[in-house]
Description:
alpha+beta; globular; binds manganese (II) ion; disordered C terminus; 6-stranded mixed β-sheet
Amino acid sequence: MSPRVQSAYAELQTRVAASRPRDDHELLRRAFEYGARLHARQRRRSGEAFILHPLAVASVLAEMEMDTVCIAAGLLHDAVEDTPVTSEQIAREFGPIVAHLVEGVTKMDRLDLQGPTQTDARQAESVRKMLLAMVDDIRVILIKLADRLHNMRTLQHLPPERQRAIARETLDIYAPLAHRLGMGKMRGELEDLAFSYLEPEAYRRIQAAVDSRRAGGEEFLEQVQARVRTALAEHEIPARLEGRIKRIYSIYQKLERQRIDVDQVYDLLALRVITDSVKDCYAVLGVIHSVWRPVPGRIKDFIATPRPNMYRSLHTAVIDASGQPFEVQIRTAEMHRMAEEGIAAHWKYKDGALAPTADDERILWLRRLVEWQREIADPAEFLAMLKVDLAPEEIYAFTPKGRILALGREACPVDFAYAVHTEVGHHCVGARVNRRIVPLRYHIQNGDIVEILTQPGHTPSRNWLSFVKTSRARQKIRHWLNVHERERATEIGRRALEREAPRFGLSAKPMQETELERAGAELGFPKAEDIYAALGYGKISARQLLAKLLPPGKRTAEQARRFRNPRRPLKAGTAGPILVRGFSDLLVYRATCCAPLPGEPIVGYISRGKGVGVHAATCSNVQNLLYEADRRIDVAWAPAAREPSEVKLQIYTDDSAGMLSAITAVISEQGSNIRNIGVRTAAGQAVVELSVDVADAPALAQIMAELKRIPGLHAIERVQGSKGREKG
Ligand code: MN
């Protein structure tokens, strides 16, 4: 055994003896000797003895103060993958837990998480397997992260394409995972290493910029520290101070996002104050603010509201006399350790404990992910969701009562509503941000005060899925839709069948379920409930189904007759119309061709896979659509509260000063909201194009009547049918 290997092991042993005095050190020694024997003939690409790699991994784990079971597994982590030894042999030698951990890491090694070279489906599958292994025993991922860290530290020995692929995977999956598990130190190093391989130019540029400011920055931090030390001593607050310069990759992200210069990064320099108690943290904050002026809106209290990865600290940004901004992070020693080591910190004071407590937020997050991945069938969507979930949470918004909620970038009021409570999400109809009404698609900004407006009886809309950003909101909406949409489809299908049955000389009401199921089976839907839902979703038509219900002899005759006379007027069905409650209603959507308003005469038409399209009775498309008469369904406006709808108007006027303000005044007097307004002028005439939110048909009539009274206004047209044909 080389002296290098021996000294590496000796160092490991010393470290573990200090950090885990009561652990099984014999286990560690046996694992090292066993591993060294197995890997004896192997070398790494760098030419060094292979065992130095497992030793380095074990040393990273020892630095995290992991238990010897975990470190032993770290020493053996490549044994099953790279040597003839089996998992069973490991179990016999070192017990089932070590074997289980090694097996977990081995499985993970076999996963291919490297994106572009494979399909979404395969990548998603790999991620799922990894998540499952992690939930099983979180130490598997800690070993894997330590393994990846050492591989990244020695990446220079691999060929360039491998370097890039591994760096990409590190940046996409492992660094965010470390972040999500609260392991700030691990994440920082992985990111910077990966970034230096992926964007070498940008990396060098930022590094040079930081280096040129380093001397000045360090001097500046010294002065700041001296000042804080004196002030805290005066107030008798115990504290340890440290300065930090922001990591290169996180500077890069900030520069990219905000399109600013390195000098404008206000938290390039930060001072950390580590004190004894939560009470002292707030006291320190007070002292800091008495010395320097705080930047408004930059105080973040992650003690009262920890980040989802359990990060806790107080942050504030202040400006010194020379105008230099810097950040101060205030935390207790315990919070500091959690910020640096995250979930790994759990093992420190536990002797051989198996796992963090079950209510640990980070473990709950993992479990939730595993649950969701079962529900989401589309791999691309699962990956997109995972990426959002792994992304740092960076928007902090307040409830009117001052509670802080952490949301993802570009989160909207619906995300916020679901973060408050599931029911608040379901009943959300609107939102006020900083006291102003905003659309539900509004992107919440840091520090916004968000008030969610709810209405009992209101329900989620499928449309929300197109703009919510958090996986929580997405999952809750999807779940609600799955349950209720199917109910609605079943209802629509039942009515379509009842309506159409008499034309075939059949009655839907006493229809035998067995009969129905026999006919449905021919169309691929053997269960009665599925048949109704399929009808409601427009997957099959009532006519197709009823034809199958006819005795075989009558089938062809009926089909021939119908073919000759397809537009025979229909009798109304026995069931009432489908009530249209608004345009976000499940499976009932407003046809874009004619965009009917509440109160207008309407007809419904079952579109394939989309539910019931509601058209204005006057719509020209509808005449063509109703050719397939069995897809028609009676609809009526529900008397319930209505959402305002967008209406487009074209107004012909003289080109005169004050015309626009006269028009807008009329519309706002009528209590309607203008979404969009544009003017074209030619030869003294003007065409004003206007989008307004209108409650219903009478309200529109009223607005049009008022507008016509404006002098110089010649004509108003409602723009309909410009969006092309509605497809069946
Ligand atoms: Mn390895």
